[in-house]
Amino acid sequence: MPLPTTPTIPPPVPEAHPTGFEPLKSPLFRKLWIASTVSNLGGWMQDTAGTWLMTVLTTSPLLIALMQTAASLPVVILGLLAGATADIFDRRRLLLFWQAWMLAAVGLLSVLTFFNIISPWVLLILTFLLNIGTAMNSPAWQAIMPELVPREQLADSVALNSAGFNLARALGPALGGLAVAAFLHPITGAGWTFLLNSLSFVGVILVLYQWKRNPIFKSALPAERIYGSMRAGIRYIQYAPPLKAALGRAFIFTVFVSAVWSLLAVVAARDLHQGAFGYGILNGSMGLGAVIGATSLPRVRRKFSADMIIAVSTAVFVFTLMILAFVRLPLVIIPVLLMAGFAWTSTMSTLNLAVQVSAPGWVQARALGTYQMVFSGGMALGSVVWGLIAEHASTPISLATAAVGLLLTLPFSLRLHVLHGELPDLRPFRSKFLVPQLVMEPEMSDGPVRIMFDYYIEPEDYNDFVQAIHKLRDVRLRDGAMRWGIFQDADDPRHLNETFVMESWIDYLRQRERFTASDRTIRDRVVSFHKGPEPPRITHTIYAKERANPDPGSNPPKNPS
């Protein structure tokens, strides 16, 4: 008889840490990432060539700084509109249209440059037109990321997109400067650079054309109008504190850090006495640092909070601005710019992720459009301010002022927490009945609509209930309610009535459709305090207007389950 043996316990499997490259296993994400990286490479070559061409066409620091404004201002003007269109229309078709727009704008710029029909204002106008396409393209592009990778890989996909963007930034400026310097005249070099950039859009267009899109959120209701969609986006942001915190930090950071981008060409030409290639090396140093930062970000996030990452990045840029202001040694400046690039991509990727995970699918592009608008608004405003100070005082004074301002605003920005606590579950939660079953069938345009919930709460639960239902208040308001209130019955203190008003019946249906899993948790917490024999009674009332056939029905309305 064999002796009993002790079962062998397999050794523990070491915990697998994500490498950050998992999204590249998706063929579609990989193709789009490669195509967009090539396109961004062309964009950064153009940025360097265009900015340097402006230094050839004019000696005005203000006009040179306005190149940054021309790149940022379209997003300030169109960010929310771009987000609204991306939430209403098919994102794939929008991306195809705006990629073609950018191809045409850059192609025209290259032709005018080749024929020497170029001036500072022509360059600014065509740069502005190009960046209209960038502004309208960006929210839709970022909003398709959850359609390309699983939710748990979203942070890595954001970091990889940032890595691709900054890899292009690392190589593009140097290649752009080299392309300009390779020709006897910088205008000819700039023309060839612009032409190469126009060709870089072709790959993105081909991949998008072949994509068979399957959107995550599909509304069963008629599409929103543009104006209403923009209002809904603003309303959502107004009642979403995590989203407002990310937007606030983005604006504060970019206003002051924009001094680096807007004045680096002036520092290279006037203070360091470098040509186009030297400027490309300085710009590319920041890009290389940004690539290192993007590839290191998954490990950095495991060790440090988002607030700590942004605070350290702020300190790095204070140091960078002071070095650019007072140091004239490229061997000192280049390592500092590498650190600044690392800090830049760490902050921007963190803030971008914070916006993406703070907005559900129905409003995500509008949230991203607003983020782009705030981000570029800070860049555009800062570029004008630091350009004016540099023109009327000096470049060192402008850079030093930006450094002091960034340092002084740090205590305030630290109060705006980003990616703090447990992240909400923003997956759509569909009610059993989307349309309430009523005797009188309202028209979609009928309204305003008042909805009332009747709760019966025990006295000992009163304070907990009020606290819970005020969290539900934010859900109602950000999903479309015009007004909200909770009222206690003076004749029966156990009876509390929640009332909110929607602009129309279709807005109420949209509010129900927008309910997320996280919203359901908040609602279930509220309902758990109700002690009546039946679920809370729901009453729907519609503003009374004269009707051609006033027959509201004879049976009492039925509440939806």
From TrEMBL:
PROSITE patterns: MFS
Location in the cell: Cell membrane
Residue stretches spanning the membrane: 62-82, 94-115, 121-144, 165-184, 190-209, 250-270, 276-297, 309-327, 333-355, 367-389, 395-414
Name of the protein: Transporter, putative
Domain Major facilitator superfamily (MFS) profile residues, every copy: 28-417
Topology of this chain in the membrane: Multi-pass membrane protein
Region Disordered, annotated ranges: 540-561
GO CC terms in record: plasma membrane
Species for this entry: Acidisarcina polymorpha
Predominant localisation class: membrane
Entry keyword set: Cell membrane, Membrane, Transmembrane, Transmembrane helix, Transport
GO molecular function ontology, one term from the record: transmembrane transporter activity
